[in-house]
Amino acid sequence: MTYKLGPLDLKSPFVLAPMAGLTDTSFRRLMRRHGCPMVTSELVSSTGMEYSFQKSLRILAFHEEEKPVGLQIFGDNPEHMLEALRKIEALGADFADLNLGCPVQKVVRRGAGAAACRDVPKLYALLKQAARAVKIPVSMKIRTGWDNDHKNAVEVVRAGADAGISWVAVHGRTRAQGYAGTADWDAIGEVKAKSTIPVIGNGDVTTPELAVERFKTYGVDAVMIGRGALRRPLIFEESAALLHDGSYAAGAPGNNSFIGLIREHRALIAEQHEGHLVPAMVHARKFMSYYATGMRGCHELRKKLFEYDDPELIWNEAERFFMQIYNK
Ligand SMILES: Cc1cc2nc3c(=O)[nH]c(=O)nc-3n(C[C@H](O)[C@H](O)[C@H](O)COP(=O)(O)O)c2cc1C
User: Fold this and answer.
1) CB 167, CB 221: distance < 8 Å
2) 18 CA distance to ligand 1 middle (Å)
3) pLDDT, tens digit, 9 for 90 and up, residues 20-69
4) Of 35, 65, 61, the residue nearest 272 (C-alpha)
5) Ligand 1 atom 3: the closest Cα is on which residue?
6) Is there an atom of ligand 1 within 6 Å of 228 CB?
7) How many angstroms separate the CA atoms of 319 and 259, rounded?
8) Cα–Cα distance, 254 to 139 (Å, whole number)
9) How many CB atoms neighbour CB 118 within 10 A?
10) Same domain membership, residue 291 and residue 225
11) Quick one: 115 and 264 in the same domain?
């Protein structure tokens, strides 16, 4: 059984959301190994790529085992964006994703991110050029609208489809909401019902049960999971098993599959940051804190993680914590 997204044939319809500072090459590789059928990089500035490509290359770097992998750009300068798309194609990415949903003030102030969807005719002209600039698929990621009075996702997706965009991911919040409130899946369902291109629904999916329910109820082509994967990194494997077999073996913290995943993550981060202890440590702390969220003793664990400045100690402490949780 495969799920089609443009030219991609995916083994399951549950995919990782791009998250700045988190979905770097090591985490993407980890998720690809654990049931996530495609991955996308965090947003990269197309103007940054124009002026300091060598610096951008660090974020744009991906490993073969991530494929299919997409690289995401944002920007307000059409020339820089088109050039960035060509560079992404030259780097060998499987698709390029346009960030049209970022709510951050310094991004929208310049008309980039979510602000780009406010003027649909202007956006259409850009999307048309973008889709023609490269042979690889160009996708886009949007929100439901600017605010409650300006929910124009249906119109934006129609413009994208007419312009030649291959698929769209819709985060069910407006820009005004930021990450507050809840994702509006009815709005996502409406976009899907009216769209001629594949639609990925996104927002607040935290369990395999929710992932499957959202997929089946709203008719979307795929479900995108962000923060849920940080707390439950086996969610892609579990959701696919639930969809295909009707049940899943819970990869609870402390059991073999979860501890195995932590060890793999440790090795991947070490490989990515070889010889650079500080970024390796920052990543170890960040992910171990996310993985432990909501568990008994997570605050004490976090305190300890931030006391240590050696990645080895951090990983050992985290492993001990998760093993204890399981054995209780
Ligand atoms: C820390 C963080 C960083 C994010 N960075 C990006 C990004 O670089 N590009 C993007 O399109 N969306 C980004 N997002 C939005 C997510 O992709 C996603 O749309 C949002 O978190 C809602 O999905 P979720 O409820 O499954 O997390 C980010 C979200 C978070 C929490």
Assistant:
1) yes
2) 6
3) 999 999 999 999 999 999 999 999 999 999 999 888 998 999 999 999 99
4) 61
5) 19
6) yes
7) 7
8) 38
9) 16
10) no
11) no
